Fold these 3 entries.
Entry 1:
Amino acid sequence: MSKLLDNVVGELSRLPGVGKRTALRLAMHILKMEREQVGEMTASIADFRNNICHCAQCNNLSDEEICEICNDRTRDRTTVCVVEQVADLLSIEKTQQYHGLYNVLGGVISPMQGIAPSDLKIGLLLDRIALGEVREVIIAISASVEGETTLFYLMNCLRKFPNLKITTIARGIGFGDELEYVDEHTITQALMNRREIE
């Protein structure tokens, strides 16, 4: 194989979820593209990496110091949804059902990976709540061991705000899942989060 091709495949396979075979397909596709298109693509990637920043209020990705969501005065400023990563924020935004603000933690507490509470953007959340406008915090983090640890830690931090409503997203069985194939923890969460049928 060409050393140039080998180098490109090696670099592309560093991306999460991209193995050597997928990297090779991507490299071959890039080779078929017009040189101008490839130049635009690489310039766009370099511009993104060099100029993107994190919002000073919520830790979302932004072109400016404060992101569009935090700057949007039409959003409900009394509600903050706490998520692990920017990708989670984007997933919630796609539903068009939530109109409040966010706090992106930047991960979850994981002693095995060396991620401590001080590595997360919990301080941004606490600072925003301390201003007095926030009435509800929705914790929307994954139902993993690390997620539950983070949830427990956040609950302890938020208890110092006595008038604050703290909620979590519902956990349980996904639409289309068959009950016999669902694990016990998920069934337990589904039972605990049951609701009355209207």
Entry 2:
Amino acid sequence: MSVQKTVRKVTTHVLQEMKERGEKISMLTAYDFSMARMIDHAGIDVILVGDSASNVMAGHETTLPITLDQMIYHAGSVVRGTDRALVVVDLPFGSYQGNSKEALNSAIRIMKESGAHAVKMEGGEEVLEGVKRILTAGVPVMGHLGLTPQSIYKFGTYNVRATEEQEAEKLIRDAKLLEEAGCFALVLEKIPSALAGTVARSLRIPVIGIGAGGDVDGQVLVVHDMLGINNEFSPRFLRRYLNLYDDIQLAVGRYIRDVKSRDFPSQQEQY
């Protein structure tokens, strides 16, 4: 009789335990069932259903156009492909800013309709009321500070954030406010590594970086970037582990040649 192997699911509590024992947290994005299944089975700790789907899945220039309905669709697909990882979903632009009741409704829709485990919100003090309201409903919230892509038109650039003392002090203050409000983790994007390390050491909750150096508690990348599916984006913080853009082009080229030369299908590939 076969014995079913028990998979220990990653929870917010597990992430806290990982920080306390100094184990780094691995996090990647996914937007569909097949990719989620592959990276979950590989052992990833956290899957982020990022609003970066607006860029890599829909071809938009920014993350702003993606809707709540579209995020729920992507999140449900990811949840169905996941057995172990904690699934976190971005609240998209316009679904939480400036209205804590709308923020709560958006978070509840994501949790009920997709089956996800947590939501992520960009911003500090300015979204604190929404964060607190979501947390009162029992929905875990991950914060996001530093470069916040939903505010790209305010910043006007994707350059490194918090290089000046005033912005760095605000980031530290916002990080502590988010922790005090009850966020279970925090993402820091594209800020100086020394500042990110300071924040990670000053907080009890896990701090996950993207372009924030190695002194944080974990790392996150967009899966299409690290697998080389997207070959047009090459920031300093990105390490490509494969070059699937070229590999897929070669494979498709071979398929086209085989079809046109009548090599495919062969006798063995027919009924």
Entry 3:
Amino acid sequence: MRLTQIAFALTFLLLGATVYVAWQAREESRGAREQVELFKRQQQAQIDVSTSVGSSATAFNNPSAMKPPVPGQVALENTQPPPIPAKNEMATIPGGAPVIPAQPAAAALPVPPPAEPTAMQKKIMAMPTIAKVKEYQADAGFTVITAGKNQRVAKGTQFDLRRDNAVVGRITVGDVIEAEEAIADLDPKSVPAGVTVMVGDEVIQVVQP
């Protein structure tokens, strides 16, 4: 009999504890929902205040918007004409494809005719080539030409050096004369200003003694 009473009491206690726990959970859920609702109301109030302030600022910056419309008058939107593009700007056709404006063709510059060579230049170009400069030693002031005893080159013979249609120097054959080569001294006074003797310059007879 006593065991039955104890079991009945334990069952009653467990039932009461279960009811209490369920009630407490419901209260906590209700409190959470109330906090969420309160947070939403605060956010909505802030949004309403911001919208009201923005509308007031817009009306202040645009006084015409604050004036009531006049009966019978139609409100006109911004009727300013669109800006005219500059000449060097690209227009756009429907579809977004750019249209490149035609550029005026550049006028072709006239090409001057080649200058007619002078009589002296013609005489220099008409001279036959005897040899060529094979080597030039600027520090020592002499050249090696591709003509020697086989071409009857003798000591003390003078030659001019030709490049295109101009004389770039005068040389005098020295002591060293071989079968196909000879060493000749360069007269520095005969070289025009800004000109340097180069390998490949042609050896010709003296144009003007």
